[in-house]
Amino acid sequence: MFVGRRAELDEFHRVLTGNKPRLVRLYGRRRVGKTELLTRLLQAHPGLYLNVDEAEYEVQRRTLASQVASQAGHEARFYADWDGFLDDLEMTNTRLVVIDEFQNLIRTGHGLLGRLQARWDSKWKSAGPSLVLSGSSVGMMQRLTQAPRAPLFGRITDNMHLRPLAYHEARDLYPGLPEEERVRRYATFGGTPFYHDLSIDRSLDDALWEALLRPNAPLLNEPEDLLRSEFQDASRPNSILREIGLGAHALHDLESRVGVQHGGLSQHLVFLEHDMDLVLHEEPVLGKKRLGHYVLPDPILSVLLPDDIRAAQCN
Fold first, then answer.
1. Percent of the chain scored above 70 by pLDDT?
2. How many CA atoms lie within 13 A of 78 on its CB side?
3. Phi, psi for 130 (deg, rounded to 5)
4. pLDDT tens-digit profile of 221-267?
5. Distance CA 186, CA 175 (A)
6. 46-60 pLDDT, tens per residue?
7. pTM recorded for the entire structure
């Protein structure tokens, strides 16, 4: 069920109804609802929707050729190189191209970003389709533009970071439930739409069994899965989240329990808070900022990270 995202859809409508093509980056952590948002976007602004698998680049090119052909109504073309792919998009005369899971092309694209940069600069920025590049690897999507030598540095026209649903949006997932029960569901599953998919049309007890308690439950390894999508070595961020979940809320306690010197967690904490929405630094209404503390805003992670549920399943 799709709910909320009115502000994001309004922003998409604003940028896509202008006179010039736009190059939009949409990013956010896994399962936060990017694909559902893009599906709704394409209902209002028809265009091509391309989903990129994690595969070798030759396989990706064949898959993309098939997707373009099926939506444009022509036979699939062979792409000898990435210029062939961009030529095919151009020949469809579509005004909007959405590429979902774009980070998979970054990993294996073999020159795609350079060719896309050249095509955008030479033609598409003034007379081409608008592009929406969506990805679940937050860090990889950010690196597209972080430095002057980054492939799309200075070219992204609009930047959208999709965050978990607020309560006033998520409550609409449960139209038949009293408000108290809606609050209980949000306090249990937070603002990640996929988690609520496991709760809709079930009692809360059944939802918890389905999501967390049964053998091979889909959310049991959620913390590790989220971190593996961002870090080659997830030991440090996993330690940070785990120790916060175990009660290390003050920075000095957290640094001590992770085993680093003062300031040694700064880079990871900034990324986990501002980019992945996995950590929240709460500051006192009155008092000094340094008296603030770190918490896990996602209730599912706050349950899973101390390993209580997973340990219980092993016993």
1. 96
2. 1
3. -75, 145
4. 898 889 988 888 999 999 999 999 999 999 999 999 999 999 999 99
5. 13
6. 999 999 998 888 899
7. 0.89
Judge if 147 and 283 occupy the same domain. no
Residues 226, 211, single domain; the answer is no
Rounded Cα gap, residues 298 and 64, in angstroms = 35
| Amino acid at the residue 120 | W
In SS3 terms, 9-47 reads as HHHHHHHHCCCCCCEEEEECCCCCCHHHHHHHHHHHCCC
Residues 112 and 152 in one domain: yes
Contacts of 154 (CB under 8 A, 6+ apart): 145, 148
What are the φ/ψ torsions at residue 282 (nearest 5 degrees)? Answer: -95, 130
Give the total number of structural domains in the chain.
Answer: 3
Q: Which two tokens stand for residue 219?
A: 């959310």
Contact 159, 8 (CB under 8 A): no
- Hey, how many other C-beta atoms are within 10 angstroms of the C-beta on 91? 12
Residue 315 lies in a domain: no
Q: Which of 38, 35, 51, 31 is nearest to 9 (CA)?
A: 38
How far apart are the two ends of the chain, measured CA to CA in Å? 36
The answer to whether 150 and 113 have CB atoms below 8 angstroms apart is no
pLDDT tens across 84-103, in order? 999 999 999 999 999 999 99
**How many Å apart are CA 27 and CA 34, to the nearest integer?**
8
- Name the strands in the sheet holding 130-135, side by side, starting at the edge strand that comes first in the sequence: 48-51, 96-100, 130-135, 23-27, 158-161
